[in-house]
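Reply to dn_fold:

You asked what the input looked like. This is it:
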Amino acid sequence: MPRSILPLAVSAFAVLAMPAGAATLVVDANGQLLGATEVDVSGTLYDVEFLDGTCASLYNGCGLNDVPFPNASAALAAASQLRIQVFLGSVYDTEPELTNGCENTKRCFLYAPFRDGIFDIGMTVFRNRSGSGDATYTTDLATFDTTFSSDIAWIKWSLTPPPDADGDGVADANDNCVLAGNPDQRDTNGDGFGNVCDADLNGDCIVNPLDLAIFRSAFFGPGPDEDFDGDGVVNTADLSYMRTAFFEPPGPSGVTTDCSATN
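and this is what came back:
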C-alpha cells in the first residue's frame, strides 16, 4: 500500500513517498500522477513518465534500439511491476482520470513499446479501470498520437540515474569526491581522492599539523597538490578548506584509494 500523500510541493510537483522497496510517485500540485521514480523491475530501477504523444516522439524514433525492453516477457514484467508499485492500493488505481494523459473516469490505457523479435516492435498495454478489470497484455504497436485520446497515454521508461550526491555529473560509485562537486575529477597526487576533498598532503589518511606544515611551505605557489580548488595558486581559499578538513580523513571517495586498506 502506498503511504499517505505528503503535503509537499517541489516547484510544480510533489514527490510522494512509498513503502521501502516500492516506487516514489511524482504528482503535480493538482494531484495529477505524472510518473514515478525507482520502479524496480527484476532488480533494475526505472523512472517512468506518463505522457501524450507518439512512440516516435517519446522514444527517439521508436526504432529497435530505442525501445526499453528486449522482448514481450520483459515488457510484461515491467507493466506488472508498474501496476503493483505505482497503482495498486492508491487513489490512482480507482480514479484513472488522475493519471496524466487520461481524462476518462472509467479507464486509462497506458502503452509502452518493446522489441518483438528481430525486426518488429510490439507494445504492452496496462489497462487501469476504476473498478475491477485491470489487465496487462501485448498487442501491435500503435503509431497514432495519444494527445487526441481521453483514455490513452504512453509510459516513457528510462533507467534511473545512479546516485550522485554532489550533483557534479559523476556517479557516486565513480566519484573521487562523493560530497564535493568536482566534475573534472582532478587528483594531482593520484591517491584516489580528488584535490577538492584531499587536504591529506602526506598520505597518512588524516589531516593534521603535518599536512599544515606542508601546506604552509607551498603557500602562494602553484601547488599542485595543495591547490585544492584548482585555481592555479595556493591561497587563502585553499587554507579555508584545510581548516574545515582538520583532523578528518580525506574524501569520502567512491573509488579505490591509497587509504582503502586502512578504512
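The chain has two domains: 13-159, 165-257.
Hope that clears it up.
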